[in-house]
Amino acid sequence: MDAANEWRSQAASDQLNRILGFFARVENKSNAIFATNTGMLAVLGVHLQWSSLPIWYIVIPAVVGAVLLGVSFVFLYLAASPQTKGGTGSLVYFKEIANRTEADFLAEIKSCSREKYVDQMFAQVWRNAEILTQKFLYVKYAFFCTAGAMLPWLIALTTSSFHYAG
After folding, report:
1. CB 119 within 8 A of CB 89
2. Coil, helix or strand at residue 77
3. Is 123 exposed, middle or buried (0-12, 13-18, 19+ CB in 10 A)?
4. CB-based burial of residue 138 (10 Å sphere; 0-12 exposed, 13-18 middle, 19+ buried)?
5. How far apart are CA 144 and CA 157, in angstroms?
6. At what angle do helices 114-165 and 56-80 cross, to 10 degrees?
7. What whole-number distance in Å separates Cα of residue 150 and Cα of residue 126?
8. Of the candidates 1, 27, 122, 157, which lies 20 to 30 Å from 65 by C-alpha distance?
9. What pTM does this model have?
10. How far apart are CA 97 and CA 141, in angstroms?
11. How many domains in the chain?
């Protein structure tokens, strides 16, 4: 094999591994935001009372905070839900591999040229970059919603504490 083909093969493998490493980062961020959201909702739920419902300065910030946390959960769901479109006929993409029988996959991988396989690896790098871009965008939106919920959440807790302290 010549040096150019060897370089392409190694570059495709390295790039695919690098891109796949970013999935753990986005999942870790999603998990941290999910835990924060869950904790904030739990504290809000425990802290508020049914008698707080007619008190506007407690209910309005509580509802605004809860809605923002709910929207954040939606974005976290979108970030976590698999995007499995594309990769038709790929020998690298897991969904397309699973669509074959084991025997068919083995036969196709054995008959595949190195050049074609490297091209498919680069195509998978591109598709994973697309998926990651969308995931990071959803996590960013979830973070903004959680951050936006913090002030109304804090106001709801503070006003509730002051209201029921006396």
Report:
1. no
2. helix
3. middle
4. buried
5. 20
6. 170
7. 36
8. 27
9. 0.83
10. 33
11. 1
At a CB cut-off of 8 Å and minimum separation 6, what does 58 contact? 48, 52, 156, 159, 160, 163
91 close to 120: Cβ distance less than 8 angstroms:
yes
User: What would the two tokens of residue 85 be?
Assistant: 């479109």
pLDDT tens column, 79-133: 998 777 877 888 888 888 889 999 998 899 889 888 898 889 888 888 988 989 9
Domain, as residue range, for 149: 3-165
pLDDT band at 166 (very low <50, low <70, confident <90, very high): low
- CA 87, 90, 91, 95 torsion-angle sign: positive
